[in-house]
From TrEMBL:
Residues 403-618 form the Tyr recombinase domain. It comes from Sphaerisporangium flaviroseum. It comes from the Bacteria. This is Tyrosine-type recombinase/integrase. Keywords: DNA recombination. InterPro entries: DNA_brk_join_enz (IPR011010), Integrase-like_cat_sf (IPR013762), Integrase_catalytic (IPR002104), Tyrosine_recombinase_XerCD (IPR050090). Gene3D superfamilies: Intergrase catalytic core.
Length: 756
């Protein structure tokens, strides 16, 4: 330290900081400042007889001056220099022992190893060295400046931990920041920039024609109130990038929406196809032209753009009239029926391939979950260097040089290390995602938004039975819906809640980013959450896809062609729909469970099996044959035919005709007045009146004599007699009332009234 002070005294200044700045060594941290110092001391005759030894310890002297707050080098210089290092140790000795000790305590209590936590503490010490003060004086602005300077000092691709934001999470976990401070540094990241204005959506593609650029901005702003942000960005990409920017690229100087037939035809051809480059076995690159799957959507968007301008030109000619032009895309260019049929066939084939594999996938992910948990438990009970075997896999607990809260095991044959905590975590969440998706049929976006508040209950007013329900948050159709929780699903959800909740029983609140609306949601107790470093983050949609794909890859399942089978989260939704409808669920009930606005969408999810119609028809025939005796399937004899014809002759009754089927007996013991198969003859109306009067008199006699049982039976017959009498009156009324159908008479037909 004395040598450093002697060197600084050679430069002018009222303080040690001013003298340090006068040396100009703090401008470039990659240049070794010790070389200039030794040269200056040698020129002044102040250099010790052992300059090599002095150079080795100069960093220690500079650290003492920084720790005592006599010098404050810049953040960039401190991050880039190779000397001094380990500033946190000096800060713990002389500047803020309690603050650094608190950070180290949080390091030992966290789930992150020393290789990540020690650099994080060192970054916080750099902020204290450059800004002065104690740990509690570090602000959010200091953290943001540190991340910015880190990107400037080390631009381009660097080591994965170079720009790690763990230091911010460490500060936030110690409670040094205010309560309203963003809990994650990702909220400051430009990756999660949030919603941007319409002007930026258009200007990011650098449209050359300014009037067309202004038109696109006005059009998108006009559409914005009626659509969500995801649709708005998709609309901007299609109209600006795929349509107008493509036209400017192939037709420089274009400035009008009125396209010639050749220009429109060329653009439609480009949008319908794309070039795929592949490398053959001999290393040669080949190009293949294939159809673009999104071509129909792009054509539809552009056609709607032209039609909207034409319609708006009628309402506001001054604003939209100059841009109204004939639409270059005809209705016949958009083959919705063909596209839908192809998509339906493709999705049905995926469902047919994956539905039989689903039980094997469920068994595989459950087995992997239990095996990963068993390996982790065995590793925790083992000593470093000890081997253990779980589910046929033999591992050896690794010997660690540094402290790490992770549990590492090595494969004895290859010495490859495996993070057993991460393996168990991935296996569990893959199993949870597969189980919830297959038993509910919800979208993957809805899965990522399930929270502890989604578990509700309903008590039936009649029986008082308690029914657990799962509330699905609004997503694609912007409508909530409720699903009944089955016992199997209840087990899965309870396992998830038990895993993520705090020791006090509460579920941690996490902040999730809505990738569709580009906004940060308020803290909510999401079910699908996991610890990343010192932060508890929600599992994003992309993370769920990766978990399911990795779990499927570990199973080794293949499709009909022998290739590895892939499962997307939406495949579970189609499988759920197909399985539910095939097992008797009415389609309109399935529509409510899936949250579809149109039942045709629900039926589109249901896969069509060629053998389904055949098996259904054959089963129908088998049921009919099972109900009829086998001897009926032959030519009837003369006696049988006469008996069949005589049946209809014997159906004549006093009050009308009996409508019972052939071969059946009377089921009402000839109490024809009560029988619904009796067709009353209107001519027998008086007979029905006599029967009604007789029944009335007999009921009065039964009530007078106390024959209550007979009176009840007679009342049933009386009600039937009145009903039959009403039927006879209605039949007579229809006979006397004529209805004019408006049919012309023969003399008024067209053929007889036409004159030459």
């Amino acid at each position: 330290m004395q040598a450093v002070l002697d060197w600084l005294e050679l430069y002018p200044g009222q303080s040690w900081q001013q003298r340090w700045e006068a040396t100009a060594v703090g401008h470039d941290g990659r240049r070794d400042w010790r070389l200039q110092m030794l040269a200056d001391l040698a020129a002044a005759g102040l250099l010790d007889r052992h300059p090599g030894y002095v150079r080795k310890i100069l960093g220690t002297g500079l650290i003492q001056l920084i720790g005592g707050d006599y010098l404050r080098p810049s953040l960039g210089w401190l991050m880039a220099t190779t000397s001094p290092l380990r500033i946190a140790n000096e800060m713990a000795k002389v500047r803020d022992p309690e603050g650094i000790a608190e950070l180290r305590t949080a390091r030992l209590a966290g789930t992150v190893g020393d290789s990540t936590m020690i650099p994080a503490i060192e970054k916080i010490a750099l902020v204290m060295a450059a800004k002065g003060g104690l740990l509690r004086n570090v602000t959010i602005g200091d953290c943001l400046e540190l991340m910015r300077v880190s990107r400037e000092v080390f631009p381009g691709p660097t080591r994965s931990g170079r720009h790690s934001p763990v230091f911010y999470q460490l500060l936030h976990s110690t409670g040094l920041f205010p309560s309203d401070t963003p809990p994650t540094v990702r909220m400051f990241s430009p990756v999660f920039a949030g919603q941007v204005p319409v002007e930026q959506l258009v200007d990011r593609y650098q449209v050359a024609c300014r009037p067309v650029r202004d038109l696109l901005v006005d059009y998108l702003r006009e559409r914005q109130p009626a659509i969500d942000y995801g649709t708005l960005t998709s609309l901007a990409t299609t109209l600006v990038l795929w349509f107008w920017k493509d036209l400017e690229r192939h037709h420089p100087g274009i400035d009008s929406l009125r396209l010639s037939p050749e220009t429109a035809s060329a653009w439609k051809q480009r949008i319908r196809t794309r070039v795929v480059r592949s490398r053959r076995a001999d290393g040669e690159i080949t190009e293949t032209t294939v159809e673009r799957d999104t071509a129909t959507d792009a054509l539809t968007t552009v056609r709607s753009f032209y039609l909207d301008l034409a319609q708006w030109a009628l309402d506001d000619p001054a604003r939209w009239g100059p841009w109204a032009a004939p639409c270059p895309i005809r209705a016949t260019d958009i083959q919705h029926k063909k596209m839908n049929s192809r998509r339906k066939a493709r999705m049905d084939q995926r469902t047919r391939d994956r539905l039989p594999i689903l039980p094997a996938l469920m068994e595989a992910v459950d087995r992997e979950r239990k095996a990963a948990a068993g390996r982790l438990a065995a590793a925790r009970a083992a000593q470093p260097g000890e081997t253990f075997t779980v589910d046929g896999v033999t591992l050896r607990l690794a010997r660690l040089v540094r402290h790490s809260p992770r549990i590492w095991a090595e494969e004895p044959a290859t010495s490859r290390r495996r993070d057993l905590i991460r393996e168990e975590d991935n296996a569990f969440w893959a199993w949870a995602a597969v189980e919830v998706l297959r038993m509910t049929g919800i979208r993957v976006e809805e899965l990522s938004e399930l929270s502890h508040h989604s578990l509700v209950q309903y008590r039936t007013p009649a029986t008082g039975e308690l029914i657990p329900l799962l509330q699905i948050p609004p997503s694609k159709t912007d409508e909530e819906r409720l699903l009944v929780i089955s016992p199997e699903l209840a087990d899965v959800l309870s396992t998830i809640v038990c895993r993520i909740r705090n020791p006090d029983g509460s579920v941690p609140l996490v902040v999730a980013y809505d990738h569709h609306e580009k906004i940060w949601n308020p803290p909510i107790p999401l079910l699908f959450q996991r610890a990343i470093a010192l932060e508890i983050r929600p599992i994003p949609i992309s993370g769920i896809r990766v978990l399911v794909s990795d779990a499927l890859a570990r199973t080794g399942l293949t499709d009909v062609t022998g290739k590895p089978l892939d499962f997307s989260p939406h495949d579970f939704r189609r499988i759920f729909t197909t399985d539910a409808i095939m097992n008797g669920m009415p389609p309109h009930i399935a529509q409510l469970l899936l949250g579809h606005k149109d039942i045709n969408t629900t039926m589109g999810y249901k896969a069509v099996y060629p053998e389904e119609a055949i098996n259904g028809h054959r089963a129908f025939i088998a049921r009919r044959r099972g109900l009829r005796p086998s001897e009926e399937y032959r030519h009837p004899s003369d006696a049988e035919w006469d008996e069949f014809l005589g049946h209809f002759e014997r159906r004549r009754l006093a009050l009308g005709d009996c409508g019972r089927a052939y071969g059946t007996g009377c089921i009402h013991e000839h109490s024809c007045v009560r029988c619904p198969l009796l067709r009353v003859d209107p001519a027998q109306r008086q007979r029905l009146i006599d029967i009604r009067d007789n029944l009335t008199a007999r009921i009065a006699e039964a009530e007078r004599e106390g024959w209550l049982g007979e009176a009840d039976g007679l009342r049933v017959s009386l009600a039937a007699a009145k009903e039959k009498l009403a039927q006879a009156d209605a039949s007579l009324q229809r006979r006397v009332v004529a209805v004019e159908l408006g049919m012309p008479s023969f003399s008024n037909v067209a053929a007889r009234t036409v004159t030459s």
